[in-house]
Write a structure and sequence with these properties.
Keywords: Arsenical resistance. Helix content is 50%, strand content 10%. The chain has 220 residues and is of the alpha/beta class.
């Protein structure tokens, strides 16, 4: 255990410990027959560590850790062949995972429904989703306010059929055999809702085109 991880473990409150225990129980039931308790706990606690050094709302940490661990375990199950349902998997990456990649994820999930899977991540995850991005997406009836900035992990990248990068440059991970696209789109950080709208609309156009290329019918 690293010094940072050891300090984080010492600072976990009793309520957080109970919440993590409950999360581990839920994940163990969800992945029963695929991954054992030790693997579940390792992914859960490493996911917790990812957020504990930066998160500003400690009470949400166990929930964020559970959501991120679930995504990582689902990705690992795909990589290892435990779960293959034929649906394409797309990963959207940008620098802070707070604007462009979150809007792309929002459009993709909204339009693809259950016909495809999408995740997002950042090379330097921010603290919260860009408020202007949230407002601009809400104008289209898409709520991304419950999303959260997060890093990418090897299993998440390896599970993707398509990796779309937006501004993370050389920091973006590269794995052989994976399709990569780079979308040259302005960063909405610090912009007003009015200035984010053209960025949002460009992202929607590109997401719709990607869905068409993947033969995934847009549900809206």
């Amino acid at each position: 255990m690293t010094d940072i991880s050891a300090r984080i473990q010492q600072e976990i409150t009793l309520d957080q410990q109970l919440a993590l225990h409950t999360a581990a129980t839920r994940l163990a039931a969800e992945f029963d027959g695929i991954y054992g308790t030790e693997t579940i706990k390792r992914f859960l606690h490493s996911s917790y560590d990812q957020f504990a050094t930066a998160a500003s709302i400690p009470n949400y940490l166990p929930l964020l850790a559970e959501r991120f661990a679930r995504q990582r375990l689902r990705a690992l199950a795909r990589v290892e062949g435990h779960h293959r349902d034929g649906r394409p998997v797309v990963l959207f990456l940008c620098t802070h995972n707070a604007g462009r990649s979150q809007m792309a994820l929002g459009f993709f999930v909204h339009l693809a429904g259950d016909h495809a899977v999408a995740w997002s991540g950042g090379s330097e995850p921010g603290i919260e989703i860009n408020p202007s991005a949230i407002a601009a997406m809400a104008e289209r009836g898409i709520d991304i306010s419950e999303e959260f900035p997060k890093p990418w992990t090897d299993e998440v990248v390896r599970a993707a059929d398509v990796v779309v990068t937006m501004g993370c440059g050389d920091a973006c991970p590269v794995f052989p055999g994976t399709r990569y696209e780079n979308w040259d789109i302005d960063d909405p950080a610090g912009l007003s809702v009015a200035d984010v709208r053209p960025i949002r609309d460009e992202i929607e156009r590109r997401v719709r085109r990607l869905l068409d290329e993947l033969d995934v019918p847009a549900t809206r």
